[in-house]
């Protein structure tokens, strides 16, 4: 209940202040598990993806965000769960694969942290998870959240925000290197308006 209340309130605010648009929503499979991966340059990114997706999205989030009990409560209500980035977090990995077995959409940001407006190298652990999951991967490209609410801003400012979802693809037969290349290619195509 809290998830959908927050989603529609956020969607209203995004459309009001950011001329929010999403395209390619039909590329997210209607049923069954999939990974959703995206570039990451703002705390707005999970909100934007949750609003853009026609299905409920479960987010992998850094553990530090859960240290405040109130923030942790709302994050969990919104489908987020913590990941310890300094070690192999078996509990988070188990949660990811349980959600996939249940046919859910699991999202994470392979850069592992917010960037400064340009893509960072992907974390090897993230790429290995995508390969191990062996479920369809949908790449989401977000534009405008860095300009609206970068790590250097205390509050968001109005700026047009757009999300483009690419058609799903299978990671089968790919290596971590070729998988990263495929994800980057799809993000760049979307960034250039194709």
UniProtKB/TrEMBL annotation:
GO molecular function terms listed in the Swiss-Prot or TrEMBL record: 1-acylglycerol-3-phosphate O-acyltransferase activity
InterPro entries, alphabetized: Plipid/glycerol_acylTrfase
Domain Phospholipid/glycerol acyltransferase: from-to ranges: 34-145
Cited Pfam families: Acyltransferase
SMART domains in UniProt: PlsC
SUPFAM superfamilies, A to Z: Glycerol-3-phosphate (1)-acyltransferase
Pathway: Lipid metabolism
Keywords assigned by UniProt, alphabetized: Acyltransferase, Transferase
GO biological process: phosphatidic acid biosynthetic process
Protein name: 1-acyl-sn-glycerol-3-phosphate acyltransferase
Organism: Candidatus Caldatribacterium saccharofermentans
């Amino acid at each position: 209940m809290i998830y959908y209340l927050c989603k529609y309130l956020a969607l209203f605010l995004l459309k009001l202040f950011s001329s929010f648009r999403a395209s390619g929503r039909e590329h997210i499979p209607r049923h069954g598990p999939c990974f959703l991966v995206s570039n990451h340059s703002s705390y707005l990114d999970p909100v934007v993806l949750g609003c853009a997706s026609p299905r409920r999205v479960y987010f992998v989030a850094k553990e530090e965000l859960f240290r405040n009990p109130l923030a942790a409560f709302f994050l969990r209500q919104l489908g987020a769960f913590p990941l310890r980035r300094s070690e192999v977090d078996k509990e988070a990995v188990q949660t990811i694969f349980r959600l996939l077995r249940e046919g859910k959409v699991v999202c994470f940001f392979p850069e592992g942290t917010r960037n400064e407006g340009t893509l960072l190298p992907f974390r090897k652990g993230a790429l290995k998870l995508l390969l191990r999951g062996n479920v369809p991967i949908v790449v989401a490209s977000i534009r405008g959240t860095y300009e609206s609410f970068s790590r250097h801003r205390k509050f968001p400012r109005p700026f047009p925000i757009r999300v483009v979802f690419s058609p799903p693809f299978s990671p089968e037969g790919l290596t971590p290197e070729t998988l990263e290349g495929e994800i980057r290619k799809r993000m760049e195509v979307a960034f250039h308006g194709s």
